């Protein structure tokens, strides 16, 4: 009898241990075999790639980091939606456009500090314009679907104007600069480093910067299936990015040289741009960040720039539990 009871107790203990191990296995973080990072020239992901700290941080989990360069934002967003890359960095408007269109798997996982003096509506040195009202009836260059387009909308609305009060010229950054320098447009909506480059080259001046406008962020985005399965991996990327930005903040000249090599933009331009760069990468997206981004989405729908309204919160993945 005692023997049978002992066997019963042993069997019960073993079953409990198996159950505990199974539960722990179910809740243990999962890591992918590889992490595919989409990046564009001239941002913090380039600095992170150069420093190699992400590879070190993920090496203990057996994750291989693969870097894939994109020339501009839309293909990167499509890469996220299709699952060809696992994380990327874009302005405020591409995720809104994606959510309103055919890219339902694009999700927000982190964000940068909001734009300040590093995004502006630029006018020529000799321009007589002193305020947004002076641009009524004037031709203004802006990249369609860019963060600059929302900046322009917000600036006009703040001045009690609308897009119909100006002649909006949809031009890419290269075409926009050429048109600006020829005098074909009277203002240009542009971010750093192009903003700094044009200021230094021609003495052009900001009519207004993002600092005085409704808050606008840039975002780190990921495919929903990846974000839901590997939140710890994404948290590691964002933490390493934040550490990289804090390092860059204190090493402007070094980072200016690195980004100059990456982009062929002169070092003095990068020094000017980096000196006013808002630093910091954060997650999760809090209520205020989501509300600010909802304003971007609402403005784009109000001006019929997207086909339907979107609810930004539906595309947010909360990584708070893995900080």
CATH superfamily of the largest domain: Periplasmic binding protein-like II
Number of domains: 3
Termini separation comes to: 53 Å
Helix proportion of residues, in percent?
40-55%
> What is the strand content?
15-25%
Shape: globular
Q: Given the helix and strand composition, which structural class is it?
A: alpha/beta
SSE order, as H and E? HEHHEHEHEEEHEHEHEEHHHHEH
Physical arrangement of strands within the biggest beta sheet: 7-6-8-5-9
Beta-strand segment tally? 11
Tell me the CATH topology of the largest domain.
D-Maltodextrin-Binding Protein, domain 2
Average predicted confidence as pLDDT: 92
Number of helices: 13
Tell me about this structure.
This protein is α/β, with parallel strands linked by helices and 323 residues long. The chain folds into 3 domains: 25 residues; 187 residues, D-Maltodextrin-Binding Protein, domain 2, CATH 3.40.190.10; 94 residues, Periplasmic binding protein-like II (D-Maltodextrin-Binding Protein, domain 2). The protein is 47% helix and 16% strand. The strands form 3 sheets. It has a 5-stranded mixed β-sheet with strand order 7-6-8-5-9, with helices on both faces. The longest helix is centred in the N-terminal third of the chain and has 26 residues. The termini are far apart.
């Amino acid at each position: 009898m005692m023997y049978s009871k002992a066997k019963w107790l042993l069997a019960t203990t073993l079953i409990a241990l198996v159950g505990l191990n199974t539960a722990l296995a179910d809740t243990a973080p999962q890591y992918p075999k590889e992490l595919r990072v989409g990046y564009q020239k001239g941002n913090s992901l380039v600095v992170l790639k150069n420093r190699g700290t992400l590879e070190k941080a993920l090496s203990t989990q057996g994750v291989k980091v693969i870097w894939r360069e994109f020339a501009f934002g839309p293909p990167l967003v499509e890469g996220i939606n299709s699952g060809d890359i696992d994380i990327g960095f874009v302005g405020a408007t591409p995720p809104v456009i994606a959510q309103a269109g055919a890219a339902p798997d694009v999700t927000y996982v982190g964000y940068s500090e909001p734009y300040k003096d590093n995004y502006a509506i630029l006018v020529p040195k000799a321009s007589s314009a002193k305020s947004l009202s002076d641009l009524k009836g004037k031709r203004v260059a802006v990249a369609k679907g860019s963060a600059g387009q929302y900046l322009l909308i917000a600036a006009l609305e703040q001045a009690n104007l609308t897009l119909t009060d100006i002649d909006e010229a949809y031009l890419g950054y290269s075409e926009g600069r050429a048109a600006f320098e020829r005098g074909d447009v009277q203002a240009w909506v542009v971010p750093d480093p192009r903003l700094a480059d044009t200021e230094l080259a021609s003495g052009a001046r900001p009519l207004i910067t993002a600092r005085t406008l409704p808050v606008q962020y840039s975002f780190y985005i990921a495919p929903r299936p990846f974000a839901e399965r590997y939140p710890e991996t994404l948290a590691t990327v964002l933490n390493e990015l934040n550490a990289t930005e804090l390092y860059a903040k204190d090493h402007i000249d070094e980072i200016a040289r690195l980004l100059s090599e990456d982009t062929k933009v002169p070092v003095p331009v990068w020094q000017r741009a980096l000196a006013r760069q808002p630093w910091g990468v954060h997650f999760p997206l809090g209520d205020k960040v989501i509300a600010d981004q909802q304003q971007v989405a609402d403005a784009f729908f109000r001006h019929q720039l997207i086909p339907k309204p979107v609810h930004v919160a539906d595309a947010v993945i909360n990584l708070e539990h893995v900080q």
